Fold this protein.
Amino acid sequence: MLDTYREVVTPEGVALHLPAAGPVPRALAWAIDLAIRIAVLVVASMVLALLGTAGFGPYAVLMFVVFWFYPVLFEVLDRGRTPGKRALGLRVIAANGAPVGWLAAFTRNLLRTVDMLPFGYATGLVASLTDPWGRRLGDMVAGTLVVHDARPHEPQAAPVGAALAPAVPLRPHEQAALVAFAERGPQLTQERQVELADIAEPLVQARGPLAVARLYGIANWLLGRRG
Amino acid sequence: MRQEIFVRRHQAEWVALEQWLDARGDSARKARAHRRDWHGLADHEMPARYRRLCQQLALARRRGYSAVVTERLQQLMQRGHSVLYRTPAPRWRRAVEFVLAGFPRLVRAEKGVMLAAMLLFVLPLVAMYTAIQIQPDLSSALYDPVQLAGFEDMYDPNDPQRALGRDNGTDVAMFGFYIWNNISIGFKVFASGMLVGLGPILALANEGIRAGAVAGHLQAVGHGDPFWRFVCGHAAFELTAIVIAGGAGLRLGLNLIAPGQRRRIDALVEGGRRGALLSVGVLVMLLVAAFIEAFWSSIGWMPATVKYSVAAVLWSAVFVWLLAGGRNRRHAESSP
């Protein structure tokens, strides 16, 4: 329940990484959508009030569309994002990782009726707290999932420098750790880099900035930058 | 192979795929419109390139390449996946086919729950109606006198000028109101099936009792003629639609209680899929019903014979449609 990270293996045999979203960002997204919906209805009611009693007909139709189909339309046409979800960086997808289709979007929003019971989405909250992927009942029935969008941060390539062969053969996880250090090190302060590099003293036979430089060198060698 | 060499070797492919996704991955319609202006990776090559990328990603993970490579390939892969596995755009032809053939087939496939829903609705209705004919005071147990007076007013036989079945409001206003009110009820009746089927049972019985009480009361006080002239037409679509919504809800509830040989979640997904399809049909039926109710049923001066003949046509049409629709199609798939 604590690990909301879901991996779905695609037909091609690679894993999709789906970080499931919890109730709080979803509730916030819902609140934003609610505000937008109310704003639309208020504006429409002011315009349609000019038509007198006949204006009630279009208004009721609009109310129907906004109540039942606002999320469906946005989730299908805007790749799983209502404006609220977009603001919170959330997205609805099918449980197999594919984009959500019309029928699934319709189902999950029909079932809101039950998730709202008995008040304030209590049923949905309980369901999403007990489900490993934070799904409310509507998501389970529709076979959908709300996930966080991929974070925009791009991993930086390690700075290019002179390659240095390590004195001893390194095991795979050690190699991965060194490359990760080289890629993330430039974002750290000098002091922190030194502090981390000192841990690798037995490998580089040095301390301080020299150890940092040697670690970068080994990382370059591991990446295959042999000059 | 070292990471840098791997990247150098495949970089061009990744960039080509990335450009294709940027330019043509968004919407199929836009991609079709601009197909002549595109000179990058050909569309038909995309699936093969995507699979190649998946293989390269698996390889990169296996060899423990760093996040710079794996994250990039992972993102490309997820973007490719969502393009390749997106649901096809709905087609108008398919929608018409569904309404004419798929929906009646689906209703017939769920015969059992549909019959159960019908009984749950019709039995209380008939029982209540009959009871009020015998004991007219019963209606005041369900409605307070103000409401009853309101009903009597709506179907007053001594006021031939008034539009039937409404307090006030124009045809258009009532059309909007019926859409908002009735379709919402239909959707809720289906969705409440998730409450282990109790929702539709209570809703259908409740609707049956209330409708039976109103009909029985109006008949008993002598306002029956305008009332029947009002309801006979749109009831064909409205009552049938509510029963179908109830049946869909019962199916969902039953799948939750007794999933059979499937996992409960799979049974629920299947019940939800069928229920949502049925709800689409219910939506169409209730739109038709709202139209009839607002623009035809309320016409007060129309002689009873015309009203009843039209109602007979509508009722037969609904039953022919539901019982025979989609039977003659040889290529009918088991599931629409």
